[in-house]
Design a protein that fits this description.
Shape: globular
CATH class of the largest domain: Alpha Beta
Pfam families: Aminotran_4 (PF01063)
Largest sheet: 9 strands, mixed
Number of strands: 15
Helix content: 25-40%
Structural class: alpha+beta
Enzyme class: transferase
GO molecular function: L-isoleucine-2-oxoglutarate transaminase activity; L-leucine-2-oxoglutarate transaminase activity; L-valine-2-oxoglutarate transaminase activity
Number of domains: 2
InterPro entries: Aminotrans_IV, Aminotransferase-like, BCAT-like_C, BCAT-like_N, Class-IV_PLP-Dep_Aminotrnsfr
Protein name: Probable branched-chain-amino-acid aminotransferase
Strand content: 25-35%
CATH topology of the largest domain: D-amino Acid Aminotransferase, Chain A, domain 2
Distance between the termini: 27 Å
């Protein structure tokens, strides 16, 4: 069966899908994107992702391409037409098609919307084989990392560097201070040397991760303490445990950074507990949506 994409009001075979060469997303990276995890036929944390989409669009002064209800229907329809029940759905909104000029079009044009979906393996059954390696790299991105912009070249280069070194993620840090920001495509956490779960607080410096927010809500519900506090590379290297979160990584232990073991080099007890908590969240979100 041919994969189906939604492109500007039409469901089309993905191999035939196209956008105009003067789409501002193509020429300027003038757009926003979101990625949503599809589990057992239901979207996980859909409201969080749509909230973030709306916020990012407001920050770049771009209207929603559809009403929220209509957009939700499109997402469901793309998944249905592709018969995907375990996967990742990608949506992208750009400022649309206009003659190439850096300022916004003098006459507003309709935003462009593309939605695709792909299959992935389901949430892992165990954390035992889920640990991975990471590297560190200076954070070379722009100053508004809280906006989920499609301008991802620094992220692409960081992820490629990680792949070339046998790692799954690049942990980014500020060169001037050595303070860790986040992963190239994930939120980054540590369990510090004192046993405190820590992640950087929200600001223009990091993306407000939806999985990050969902996990925090689950921790509060379970009465598990955590700290939104900056930490340095040195503190990270002394950490007992480390992990990343995202719609694609879920809760993924990082057991080695720059070739050095984190703790004993195996998923630790805190990450094991959080992995199980988030697995219940994913399944609970599906149950509540049914």
């Amino acid at each position: 069966m041919s994969r189906i994409a939604y492109v500007n009001g039409r469901y089309v075979p993905q191999r035939e899908a196209s956008v105009n060469v003067e789409d501002r997303g193509y020429q300027f990276g003038d757009g926003i994107y979101e990625v949503v995890h599809l589990y057992n036929g239901r979207f996980v944390d859909e409201d969080r992702h749509l909230d973030r989409l709306e916020r990012s669009l407001r920050e770049i002064r771009l209207p929603m391409p559809l009403t929220r209800q209509a957009l939700s229907h499109v997402l469901q329809e793309v998944a249905r037409r592709n018969r995907v029940t375990e996967g990742l759905l990608y949506m992208q909104v750009t400022r649309g098609v206009a003659r190439r000029d850096h300022p916004f079009p003098a006459r507003p044009v309709p935003p462009a919307l593309v939605v695709t979906v792909k299959r992935i393996a389901p949430y892992p059954a165990s954390v035992d084989n889920w640990g991975a390696a990471a590297i560190t790299m200076p954070d070379l991105r722009w100053a508004r990392r809280d906006i989920k912009s499609i301008n991802l070249l620094p992220n692409v280069l960081a992820r490629q560097a990680a792949r070339e070194q046998g790692a799954v993620e690049a942990i980014l840090f500020e060169e001037a201070t050595g303070v860790v920001t986040e992963g190239a495509a994930t939120s980054f956490w540590i369990v510090d040397e004192h046993g405190t779960i820590r992640t950087r607080p929200l600001s223009h410096d990091i993306l407000p991760g939806c999985t990050r927010g969902a996990l925090m809500a689950e921790l509060k519900e379970a009465g598990i303490g955590f700290s939104e506090a900056p930490f340095t590379l040195e503190e990270m290297r002394r950490a007992r445990e480390a992990f990343i979160t995202s719609a694609t990584s879920f809760v993924k232990p990082i057991v080695r950074i720059d070739g050095q073991d984190v703790g004993d080099g195996k998923p630790g007890p805190v990450v094991r507990q959080l992995f199980d908590i988030f697995a219940r969240h994913v399944k609970g979100a599906v149950k509540n949506a049914a």
